[in-house]
Amino acid sequence: MTVKESTKEFETKSYFRERDVVTAAIKENVRSAMAKEGLTVESLYIGQMGIPWKFEDAVTTKVVTQQQAATVLMERNVTLVEAETEVIEAQAAADAAVTIGKSTALAYNLTESANAYGVKIIQKAGAEGLSSLGEMLDLEISETLTYKYSRLLSVVGEKKNLVIGYDDAKMMTFT
Fold first, then answer.
1. Residue 97 exposed, middle or buried by CB count within 10 Å (0-12, 13-18, 19+)
2. pTM for the whole thing?
3. Cα gap 173→160, rounded to integer Å
4. What is the mean pLDDT of each run of 10 residues along the chain (175 residues)?
5. 22 neighbors 11 (Cβ within 8 angstroms)
6. Whole-angstrom Cα distance, residue 15 to residue 24?
7. Are 153 and 162 in contact, with CB atoms under 8 Å apart?
8. Planar angle of CA 76, 57, 51, nearest 5 degrees
9. Is residue 133 within a helix (H) or strand (E), and if so which, with residue range?
10. Every domain of the chain and the residues it spans
């Protein structure tokens, strides 16, 4: 395990081009690990074989090329995952915007419905009050409405001519 841990810090090229450095690191780590166990390492042999330099260069080039291809593949996979993550985040943001929009529209509809219902209640109460007033004063509906409009006209102010239209198409002009 110590040998394995010692070698993971080196790039693939180092095993071919810097064997002495790799060997020294392995020896030092093995000595250190054994010292923790109370043992002393007197000698440690890490075998090496001599390879013709052309063959060694070819193998080194092949291994380094394969390692670079694997690195490029891993970088590509990371890029794909990042792109997919961005798509997922964009979809989530769009879904959230739609949900917020729907909620806002629903809240607006509920508010407007409540306001309309409130206006309806006020109008109904006003109509019932006016009807009650007409009954108390023994007035017909048209007389009650005339009374109501004459009260409203009193707050008009300095206007000289005012034309009022009714549902039954009668019009009156007040001056």
1. exposed
2. 0.39
3. 10
4. 82 77 88 90 75 80 91 94 95 96 95 94 89 86 79 65 58 51
5. no
6. 12
7. yes
8. 130
9. helix 53-136
10. 1-48, 51-137, 139-175
